[in-house]
Amino acid sequence: MNTKTLIAAAEDGNLGSFKAPSNAYTLEIGEGTGEAAASNFEGILSVAVGGFTLVAVVYFLFVFLTAAFSWMSAGGDASKVQKARDSMTNGLIGLVILVAAYSIIGVVGTMLGIDILNPGSLLLDLSPNSAPVITEPPAAIPINP
Questions:
Q1: Mean pLDDT over residues 30-38, rounded?
Q2: Domain assignments of the chain as residue spans, ordered by start
Q3: Residue 66, pLDDT above cutoff 90
Q4: Residue 38: exposed, middle, or buried by beta-carbon count in 10 A (0-12, 13-18, 19+)?
Q5: What is the mean pLDDT of residues 89-101?
Q6: pTM confidence score
Q7: Strands, E, within the chain: which ranges?
Q8: Mean pLDDT of 63-71
Q9: Does the pLDDT of residue 144 top 80, yes or no?
Q10: Which DSSP helix (H) or strand (E) runs through 57?
Q11: CA-based angle 53:58:60, to the nearest 5?
Q12: Where does residue 36 rank: exposed (0-12), middle (13-18), buried (19+ CB within 10 A)?
């Protein structure tokens, strides 16, 4: 911090004070009903979709690496090499299908004007009072009173 910045901070009254971050607003939403319930369901659905995707990618890696190891340990046996190659191909096809399905769902959602990949926004739009109440952030809090 150079001297000019320090002087400018002192003139603004920010030197020696703590200002809460701008995103530290409090959100006042119901307790497990209405929008809060939609938010909980959104979280559960998001975790489920993310978990499914993660499991699919880990399964692909497992199948691909197992088949690669089988190929390396085939010892020149043509049938073992072919079986390993088929397993690697099937694993790769599965991963491509997963990525393509995710992309197609996104494109269809965009064409329909629906955010299908973010189901929480759909749930909040369905609730009658979907605008959360945001209170103003607190003013600067001095460190030394």
A1: 52
A2: 29-135
A3: yes
A4: buried
A5: 91
A6: 0.51
A7: 17-18, 27-28, 133-134, 141-142
A8: 93
A9: no
A10: helix 35-72
A11: 95
A12: middle
Tell me which residue of 25, 11, 13, 7 sits closest to 140, measured CA to CA. Answer: 13
Q: How many Cβ atoms are within 10 Å of 52's Cβ, its own excluded?
A: 11
The answer to whether residues 88 and 95 touch, using CB atoms and an 8 Å cutoff, is no
When pLDDT is cut at 50, 70 and 90, the band that residue 10 belongs to is low
pLDDT of 86 over the 90 cut: yes
Residue 31 identity (one-letter amino acid): E
| CA atoms lying within 13 Å on the CB side of residue 62 | 6
| Nearest-angstrom CA–CA distance, 102 and 133 | 33
53 three-class SS: helix
Q: How far are the Cα atoms of 35, 69, 73, 93, 119 from residue 83, in angstroms, in the given order?
A: 52, 12, 12, 15, 41
Fill in the amino acid letter for 79.
Answer: S
Integer Cα distance of 69 and 58 in angstroms: 16
Residues 83 and 70: their CA atoms lie apart, in Å, by 9
Q: Report the percentage of the chain scoring pLDDT > 70.
A: 52
Spatial CA neighbour of 90 closest among 55, 52, 62: 62
